[in-house]
Write a structure and sequence with these properties.
With 16 residues, the protein is mostly helical. It has one helix and no strands.
């Protein structure tokens, strides 16, 4: 699911 992948990327940026 692209939606999940996008969420993962967003979270990654927030965690960084």
């Amino acid at each position: 699911m692209i939606y999940l992948k996008m969420l993962n990327l967003l979270q990654n940026h927030l965690v960084s």
